[in-house]
Design brief:
Helix content is about 25%, strand content about 25%.
Length: about 300
């Protein structure tokens, strides 16, 4: 159970602690990078030294903001994608839900999360079992009792059914939305590729790929939408991590989205993410598994 005055049923409250899987754990070596990057659909092979430098900058930024950074240790058969540690588990105030990955090459990641939570004495609420699939990048809180989940190539109907069953007993509503085909089954496309809440009623979105019903639901709930332009979508302009209300971390090189956030009163922290984010299609929300936020 959460400590009083904290929750994890939020994407925007002040971030207190976060789980990370650093480059040295996920990438390990240049040889591993060259064996895996094509299979995992990276745009090109990350350069290990550059990735290590970028990750140091990213983690350092979080530490400078007084966020407790906890780290997954080495684990057998982790892929390069294990760096995107949001995907292998979902955090709730009632315990952690262990995902079942829709991308087969990532099947070993949930076990690393189970081992970490068990070792650190954190409760596990349940697991998504085959044939269900569910990835954390398809899941986001829109308020403390409402979790939105994208039906995608990574998260199937059975996975969503199991998620609903785990949370319904805790009076959490699971709002299901259908994601578009876009670039097909091999792409890294998740719900959070097009939706990043940064305050209670403010979200960064890429409307051309945002499901119409979900976009209308956000507007009906009173959300303001910061619209990402097409030229900043592939550079992770829509993947924004809120570390406090209207305090955001994003990949450098998206000046239009950055300016739009500043116009809304946001403070924006930038990191260079060519090798840890853009090449693998995973921005700062993907790089983090938030564990606790302060109300």
């Amino acid at each position: 159970m959460p400590v009083k005055n904290t929750t994890i049923h939020s994407e925007y409250h002040q971030l207190a602690s976060v789980l990370l899987c650093p480059v040295e754990t996920a990438f390990e070596s240049t040889d591993k990078i060259h064996r895996q990057w094509k299979q995992l659909n990276y745009t090109s092979a990350p350069v290990l030294e550059a990735a290590e430098k970028e990750y140091q900058e990213f983690a350092g930024l979080l530490i400078e903001q007084q966020i407790e950074c906890l780290y997954l240790g080495r684990h057998e058969n982790l892929s390069l994608d294990s760096m995107y540690c949001r995907d292998a588990s979902i955090a709730t105030d009632f315990g952690y839900i262990i995902c079942n990955m829709g991308k087969a090459a990532r099947n070993f990641e949930p076990r690393a999360h189970v081992d970490y939570y068990t070792k650190t004495g954190r409760a596990i609420l349940g697991k998504i079992e085959s044939p269900g699939t569910l990835e954390g990048g398809d899941v986001a809180w829109i308020d403390r009792q409402t979790l939105v989940v994208g039906h995608s190539y990574r998260t199937n109907r059975e996975g969503i059914r199991q998620l609903k069953a785990l949370l319904s007993v805790h009076q959490v509503e699971v709002l299901e939305v259908d994601l578009p085909h876009y670039r097909g089954p091999e792409d890294v496309f998740h719900l959070m590729s097009v939706f990043s809440p940064v305050d209670e009623k403010l979200a960064v979105v890429y409307s051309p790929l945002l499901p119409i019903g979900f976009r209308n639901e956000l507007l009906a709930r009173g959300f303001e939408l910061v619209e990402v332009m097409e030229e900043e979508f592939d550079t992770m302009g829509c993947n924004v991590l809120a570390i406090a209300p209207r305090s955001c971390v994003m990949v450098a090189g998206n000046p239009k989205t950055e300016a739009a956030l500043i116009q809304k009163g946001c403070r924006v922290f930038l990191y260079d993410g060519n090798d840890i984010s853009i090449k693998g299609g995973g921005g700062p929300t993907c790089l983090t598994r938030p564990l606790s936020r302060i109300l």
